[in-house]
Amino acid sequence: QVQLAESGGGSVQAGGSLRLSCIASGYGSTYSLGWIRQAPGKEREEVACMEWDGKTTYADSMKGRFTMSKDNAKNTLYLQMNSLKPEDTTMYYCAAAARWYCDNEYKYWGQGTQVTVAS
Hints:
The protein has strands at about 5, 10-15, 20-25, 30-40, 45-50, 55-60, 65-70, 75-80, 90-95, 110, 115-119. The protein is mostly beta strands.
């Protein structure tokens, strides 16, 4: 059973940084893993996705500001977010898919963590 649990959200001033964590268990070695965000009434947006071999892709608006990483020893995914902007304010979720490549379709989801960036 795949289980995902995010933490690390909070409030920060514009230009600040946050690091989100996601404890992940039960997923296979060939799964893809992602960070996704969604604001109420808006479309879901894939922030970053890591394929089974560690190759990571980012949404254009996050390139250079966000970094996704994984610590296998701790079963934890991270999303380091720098130079945060008010428009980054929303819920962030970690997710997993039973496929090795990224295609923005995820079956397993965490409960989400709220990020609020004040201007």
